Amino acid sequence: MVSTFIKKAVAAAGIALAGHDIGQLFSSEEKQIVYPDIPLIPSTETHTDSFANQILLIIFGIILIIIAILMLIFYRRFKTPVNSKSKPSSSSRSA
């Protein structure tokens, strides 16, 4: 269960990164198709924005993975055993 949860968290972060890269690729191709005669001049603002977005996305993915691991650690530590025999409470006995 732990490994499948971690695999899902890593896969979600990977899909988010891949989706961001694919979106950047299609947006730059679309500009080239709309203006085929004008070569694209790379502006520093767009490049730094894209680079900063990728760094923030990677940091956010790492934070999500750390949160998922901490949740699993605390879940295992504080969960009650399933087969524990507890006495029924008085309210459930009377009902």
Structure description:
The chain is mainly alpha-helical and 95 residues long. The chain has one domain. It is built from 3 helices and no strands. It has helices at residues 2-34, 44-78, 90-94. α1 (2-34) runs antiparallel to α2. It is elongated and about 70 Å long. The mean pLDDT is 69.
Q: Which blocks of ≥5 consecutive residues have pLDDT under 50?
A: none
Q: If helices are DSSP runs of H or I spanning 4 or more residues, what is the number of helices?
A: 3
What profile does the largest beta sheet have? none
Shape: elongated
In total, how many domains does the architecture comprise?
1
Helical fraction: over 70%
Order of helices and strands: HHH
What is the alpha-carbon Rg in Å? 25 Å
The N- and C-terminal alpha carbons lie at a distance of 36 Å
If you average the pLDDT, what whole number results? 69
Structural class computed from helices and strand pairing: mainly alpha
Number of strands: 0
Beta-strand percentage? under 5%
